[in-house]
Design brief:
alpha/beta, seven-stranded mixed beta sheet, three-stranded antiparallel beta sheet, 14 helices, 14 strands, 15% strand, globular, binds pyridoxal-5'-phosphate
């Protein structure tokens, strides 16, 4: 037997209760039965986004919501500023370029977090910038960008939107979209929301909805104005991802039972334990400024075959970690602590890594990583 552990920053494990709820016989979506579930989920999402606005549910992966954010608010030739600090920052630039926008970037070494002053300086140099596109948590590097501080700067400008990919931050960090001044906030189902992939969530501020009135970029499936109207009637413009929305109802019940502040605290503690555990094993963190609470990345020693290690751990030991993307392929390891993940999942991950790295020839002090994590968890065990 090989018990499987999913420790990658998306997809993440799905709780048993949610799997069972999603396994119920299919229901039709144009019914009061579905609309009642939809209405409950709509309300339940708002506190997690920190907004009074509708959180729209789209059938698609997170990237669908990223594309929707661009095509619904901007126009060809508009100048946008992208924080290009990893794979997902690069994706913002690719989407914007695909629609004929002019992309300015702040290019950072992978692992760095942008400083608010850098964004402010760009906005002063280019006051015509229509939107700042950023990740809250850049999953490819496990670095967090200081969203609240940047929101303060961008929200002072009536003609500039602050568009945040919160795909690995919503549900991980307390997020106050309205209070901080985020104009568009996005997430997807397969990260902190503990669901299978396929559902994208997006909320727009009043300011962003005003931008939709002037946006002429092509859109059909991802027309948010149309979607907003449908969803305000507890239905969707197209066939919704029925099973995922049923699963989301179940997820929200689980999150609310734990209490949102406890959800965020659990993520912070698992992240701290993972960081301390991996550092006790002798690794350096990839995130140099602000490591994210969603996943922890470490730099592997020169010459170590990270790709082979990840494959071997998955196939021979049953644990799925994530390696690096693009130029960091094979050079880093990423360990998730996202979603349905608690203290003992972190302990398992660290213990397996200690043994695995030793097998792969690294000099590891067995138990050092686990011990460091236990020191973090011990006061919070509640026994
Ligand atoms: C996973 C992820 C995405 C991509 O979402 P898909 O669901 O693969 O389309 C985008 N941004 C961030 C920060 C992510 O972690």
């Amino acid at each position: 037997m090989l018990k499987k552990y999913l420790l990658s920053p998306g997809p993440t494990p799905v709780p048993e209760k949610v799997l069972l709820d999603m396994a119920m016989p299919m229901i039709h979506h144009r019914t009061s039965e579905f609309s009642n579930i939809f209405a409950e989920v709509r309300e339940g999402l708002k506190p997690i986004f920190g907004t009074k606005q509708d959180v729209l549910m789209l059938a698609g992966s997170g990237t669908a919501a990223m594309e929707a954010a661009v095509v619904n608010t901007l126009n060809e030739g508009d100048k946008v500023l992208v924080i290009n600090a990893g794979k997902f920052g690069k994706r913002w630039a690719e989407i914007a370029t695909a629609y004929g926008l002019e992309v300015l970037t702040i290019d950072l070494e992978w692992g760095r977090s942008v400083r608010p002053e850098q964004v402010e300086a760009k906005l002063i140099a280019h006051p015509e910038i229509k939107a700042v596109l950023i990740q809250a948590s850049e999953t490819s590097t496990t670095a967090y960008h200081p969203i609240e501080e940047i929101a303060k700067i961008v929200s002072l400008r009536d003609d500039t939107l602050f568009i945040v990919d919160g795909i690995t931050s919503v549900g991980v960090y307390e997020t106050k979209m309205d209070e901080w001044g985020i104009d568009i906030l996005i997430t997807g189902s397969q990260k902190a929301f503990m669901l299978p992939p396929g559902l994208a969530l997006i909320a727009l501020s009043e300011k962003a909805w005003k931008f939709t009135e002037k946006s002429k970029l092509p859109k059909f499936y991802l027309n948010l104005k149309k979607e907003r109207k449908s969803q305000s009637d507890n239905t969707t413009s197209w066939t919704p991802a029925v099973s995922l929305i049923i699963g989301l109802k179940s997820v929200l019940e689980i999150m609310n039972k734990e209490g949102l502040s406890n959800v965020y605290k659990r993520h912070a503690l698992c992240a701290e334990a993972t960081r301390k555990g991996l550092m006790a094993m002798g690794f350096d963190l990839l995130a140099k400024d602000i490591p994210s609470n969603s996943a922890t990345g470490v730099v592997l020693p020169e010459g170590f075959d990270g790709g082979k290690f990840v494959k071997s751990m998955r196939e021979k030991a049953g644990l799925t970690f994530a390696g690096g993307q693009d130029h960091l392929k094979g050079k880093i390891l990423r360990v998730s602590h996202l979603g349905y993940h608690d203290f003992f999942d972190t302990i398992i991950a660290l213990s397996a890594l200690e043994m695995g790295f030793s097998q792969f020839g690294l000099k590891i002090d067995l138990g050092a990583g686990v011990k460091a994590a236990e020191e973090v968890f011990k006061p919070h065990l509640g026994v």
